[in-house]
Write a structure and sequence with these properties.
The protein is built from 5 helices and 2 strands, in the order αββαααα. By secondary structure, it is mostly helical. It has a two-stranded antiparallel ribbon with strand order 1-2.
Length: about 140
């Protein structure tokens, strides 16, 4: 028996031991959030839940922005409202310089329609902590590791 064949047998034995040990490990318990089993790839139930929650998040952001925009006059040409700016930046992901309040509000509304759920997952807790929007009982699922 050559040195190579001895090494090969040892490698095969080690490979067999590793694969059988891996196969014998207990299956990982499925993660459940808000009564929904988290799967990879995402299930239809997860997508439906996230769509409902993100619609509520968008409504809350829109109401907060509308409340702040109501206080603006049409004569206010330069955008100076810090609260409206923070809400717009949370949705749009870019800032505004020398824009009127109407332009900022319109941009926020148009971007709010297409903002992805993962962005809301990241930004909404900050808006809750800052006191702009209310906390939700259920959050988005499938984004935590």
């Amino acid at each position: 028996m050559t040195d190579y064949s001895r090494r090969r047998k040892a490698d095969d034995k080690t490979y067999f031991m590793i694969t059988t040990t891996s196969a014998m490990k207990a299956k990982k318990e499925p993660t459940v959030e808000y009564g929904i089993v988290i799967t990879r790839p995402w299930s239809k139930e997860m997508y439906d839940h996230n769509d409902k929650v993100s619609a509520t998040m968008k409504e809350n952001i829109l109401m907060a922005a509308t409340d702040r925009f109501k206080n603006y006059n049409e004569e206010d040409l330069i955008f100076e409202d810090e609260d409206l700016y923070i809400l717009a930046k949370a949705v749009c992901a870019y800032g505004f310089v020398d824009f009127s309040a109407r332009e900022v509000f319109n941009e926020l509304v148009s971007e709010l329609v297409v903002v992805p759920n993962f962005w809301l997952y990241q930004e909404y807790p900050y808006l809750v902590k800052a006191g702009y929007v209310p906390a939700l009982e259920q959050g988005l699922v499938g984004y935590s590791k």
